[in-house]
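Researcher: Here's my situation. A collaborator sent me these components and asked whether they could plausibly form a single complex. I don't have experimental data yet, so a predicted model of the whole assembly would be a useful starting point for our discussion.
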Amino acid sequence: MSRTDRLEPGQAERLLREREKDWRKALRRELPIQKRMAIERQPMPEQEPGVRVRNFKEVNLGYTLELARVEARRCLDCGQPGCVAGCPVAIDIPTFIKYIEAGELEKALEKIRETNGLPAICGRVCPQEVQCEKDCNLVRAGKAPVAIGHLERFVADYLCLREGTGAGISASPEVTRRPEKIAVVGSGPGGLTAAADLARLGYRVTVFEALHLPGGVLAYGIPEFRLPREILQSEINFIKALGVEIKTNFIVGRTASLEDLRQDGYRAFFLGTGAGLPSFMNIPGENLLGVYSANEYLTRVNLMKGFRFPEFDTPVPRARRAAVIGGGNVAMDAVRTALRLGAEQATIFYRRSRAEMPARVEEVKHAEEEGIVFNFLTVPVRFLGNDRGQLQGMVLQRLALGEPDSSGRPRPVPIPGSEFEVEVDLAVVAIGQSPNPLLIKQLPGLKLGRWGNVEVDSQTMATSLPGIYAGGDAVRGGATVILAMGDGRRAARAIDEFLRRE
Amino acid sequence: MNRVVLSERLVPNLYRLVLEAPEVAASARAGQFVMVIPDGRGERIPINLADWDTERGTVDLVFLNLGASTRKLAALKPGEAVEGLAGPLGRAPEIPGPGAVLLAGGCYGIGGLYPLARVLKQAGRRVIFLAEARSPAYLYWEEKIKKYADDILTLFREDCLGSGQDFKELVGGVISKHPDIALVMVMGCSYLLFKFSEATTGSGFKTLVSLNPIMVDGTGMCGACRVSVGGRTYFACVDGPWFEAGDLDWQEYFNRRKAFLSQEEQALARLDREFWKRTE
């Protein structure tokens, strides 16, 4: 099967048309493939580990224009680009990279924005190694893949941060205004993408956000050392510039019901309510002082700026020995946050082995450089506290990997008699979240799946209720920013068709 | 923008703010709360709804000036605005009938219980209101409450302490005066909730307490407010704030409320320093 078979209908032809343009042919002629392949992948400039563990500034400093143009030359401009098929929103990756090579940064950004409304964010938080970069043809040739994520980030930063409100705004004024009002519930990556696409189609879109700042998990979950808030703000400004209204402090299901919004004239809905319900382990001692859900710990630090306490009022726990339970990106964020807040030792406890860790490779690498200790194949069985209810330690059990479970990963099996104790004064539970039930449980007839997730048609993101669409973690449980964005995009298209049909 | 329409000190340390929040007022139900962020550097704190006006589009909040956040709120003047206000949050309590309801409030809870008195009376229930305060000088809203209460009783801490009378006996006295009481609902400081829980345990009727644990988002997202009731963990923000008193793990509740005590003092000290700098 050819790699481009995974593309949407028409996409392969569009890619080919772009590739056959004269400027692309000229670029390809300029530097032969052998020379391109001889260039090494350009490393991302970073803050030194010893320095960055004392601040909350971004770890990655970003490519310079020179680095970006060298890296762009590594792209072979293949006839069958695997990268595009690996991207959940099918960005025309070769074209934007070749625009960088040609020095046409505005055009590069415009190309990305055609299918991705949040490039500065995706360039930072997407797991490129299992998406676009995985299928880069350089990998087949035994080379490191083109640093697609770094280049995407470079283009977005280079233009947006300079101009503040986002460059290349294509709120095409010639778009026909449509009278229908659409409500997007939740301002995370799925909601923002749906809102941006619908606004571009001419609809009047309002995004309702329960918290006081927009961004959803991008605002409360992802720390500033991975996603600086001015980057998030610049992407949100771009979406506002498209005409999207964002209403914060508005909890759909409490401040007003979905039915109230319907009465107000909203004709279609996108539920991007996220996976806001933290999972706990239900083991003894979990309510001791010092045991936090990752959601609480990270919300205090990121959304409420607790890392700047007492300048900001929200306190965060400061620990000497911090333990984080889990192996995903949220766990990496929490453990690295604990280190930056002054922990002498910050440790990951994960119940499977390194190979099964769902976190992005770059996050694990950064965590290791920073001195995070990893304990694999261990799981807490109880927390230990003192008479004032404060956490003092935990009892862990060792595990072995058994047969694959329903997720295809080997099931961890407890080893009898392997219990041991560690001293900790902070434990952050980062074992996953499930969809926030606040709104979705209020909608009679809304079909839910096994984990309380909203069931949708995977092509249209339509729920069981007419006019109501859903995407992101509300549908998937804990997934990724880019998958949520892909959902928002598909839902926007389907909402458009739905409203035109009506 | 949630602008301040009115700000007043009700009694020493207890304040009332009337804030513009038309959408919250339109959806508010008795027994719910809102999350308030005083200013751009502020915390999100839960405050009970003490009243609302759907026509004027305002909500009333009554709160104790205790920490940095409430101190900031107490200093607000009409025309100024809070950074954010979201709600209404929490479940409005289900009130099983029939029988009279004893509403027992102390501190901010006197204000917070007022909307319950109103809906209960309007639903035709007999309402007994017990206001607990340090001394008569700390009582407020008696006139407002009188409209919806069949009987108003007071309990002054100085009397309790002086008379050597046991709290349980005092509550027992109230209940024997109104033998048709079928439900007790308590709002106020944790100690009051606990004393009521103790005094009514085993008395055959239900006691609901409005818990006020530390919260961050208030929408069920973080679990800061988890409480153990009957051996199960609940999130007070979405499962509560009303819970059956007898089933609560009180020790854990008291402990968890003190999670950030030293930081709270630090924040207050910092605010004081800033305040003095400004006045110098």
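Model: Some features of this prediction you could bring to your collaborator: DSSP finds 21 helices and 16 strands in chain A. The two ends of chain A are 39 Å apart (CA to CA).
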